Amino acid sequence: MIVVMGGRGGGKSYFINQMVGGDVAPIRDGSTQYTGTLTCQAVPTRFGRSKVILIDTPGFDESNSSEAIACAEICRVLAQFYQRGVSLRGFIYLQRITEKKTIGNAASVLKMFRSLCGETKLLKNTILVTTGWQLQQVDEPQGAVQERELRKFWGQMLNQGSTMVRYYGDRDSGVGIVSRILGNEDVPFEPEAELMARGKQ
């Protein structure tokens, strides 16, 4: 199981659709107000001989309410799969390169998952992905400047094992990212009750 997460408009559903070759995850443009009604969607697929479940997650913006809603929903789904014996292999965090400012809540969400799954192991199983490089409005030099800023923002995570890569909007680029996650060991989980309790805080 791989969790695909990030802010609204980061390209989570688009990424998953490219991986499975169909429109199985609804793409939301992020223009509508976040109501807290969105839920995680489990999308089963195959990569070679490996069966993989990609978890499309609710996006979050700069409000504490949307962050709490998204985190609680992600924790609920992880707990359900854990109870069924499905292991977590890692996280893919998507950040749109055209976003002029980094969503501050991203750090809070990832901090939460560090506390849930063990900081060292989780960070090694997390890939920080910049998206939107295939878009015409993305200027390579300007994108590279933003990329350097993101690298500074994510510096502590990168120093402790996370990796940062570009996603170019096609399946081959995505397969390379997923393959990195599949090469990792499983992420350890805490018991469901404690997992759920933390998700509601």
Automatic annotation (TrEMBL):
InterPro entries per UniProt: G_AIG1, P-loop_NTPase
Protein name: AIG1-type G domain-containing protein
Keyword Metal-binding appears in the UniProt entry: no
Keywords for this protein: Nucleotide-binding
Entry GO MF terms: GTP binding
Pfam family, one: AIG1
AIG1-type G domain segment(s): 2-131
